[in-house]
Amino acid sequence: MKFKVALFIIIILILAPVTIHANHHISSIEKLDQISDEALRMVKSSRYEDAKKLLEYFSNEFFTYTMENDVFSIDEKRIVTIAQNEAIEAMGDGSMNHDERINRVTKFRLAIDAITSSNQPLWTQMEDPMMTVLGGMKEAALQGENEQFHAHLNSFLSLYEVIYPSIKIDAPIQRVQNIDARINFIDEYRAKILSDDKSRQEIEVLEADLKALFDDMSEDEADPSLWWVIITTGSIIIVTLSYVGWRKYKGEKERERAKKRM
What we know:
Elements: H1 2-44, H2 48-68, H3 74-91, H4 98-116, H5 127-143, H6 146-170, H7 173-188, H8 190-195, H9 197-217, H10 227-261
Protein name: Sporulation protein YpjB
Organism: Bacillus yapensis
Keywords: Membrane, Transmembrane, Transmembrane helix
């Protein structure tokens, strides 16, 4: 009996540090995720200075955590650091509008979710707004609606930029590169896409590639508490970015006309 008691105590002593370490690991991961979520909430409420301080606090916490735990790859650390730096920069840029600041911090928020989530990453829930904008771009190209095509394409590029860090974290590098190549081709050869049927097929191939990517990553349900992020970002993309894309296109046309008059 004494031997069994002694053995039981020894097992407890051996397993206790492991259990404590595991709980510390979980709480640290959750803390990083919660900080990023709270930063986005602050930006949504226009509390830019508070959000900046919280993002800087995240930087210290993330550095400490990665120094103590070898759980993230070098690429993951680099992607998160870049997204975080862009978010901090946006908080201090007085010329940047509210919607663009939300986009910057949303990009950071989604990247953190991508490296900390064990289930379906939050960025996959952006499928509907992204495919809606892409569908509008395809329809405009088919109908030869030049201005609408440029506006939808610029909106699509803005949305893709928001989820791009998360895609690089979760998707195989070759798959990301293939999607990048198609998007770059469509962006660079806009006039050709509008005038050439064969080139226009690149939009359909891109649509299929993105659909397959979302389907492969969307096996579980997203955390219901994070749906407000999806709704907020989706509305920005569908409404605000469409206007921003249109304004960007008109600005480019004005610059081209100005150059011709010189």
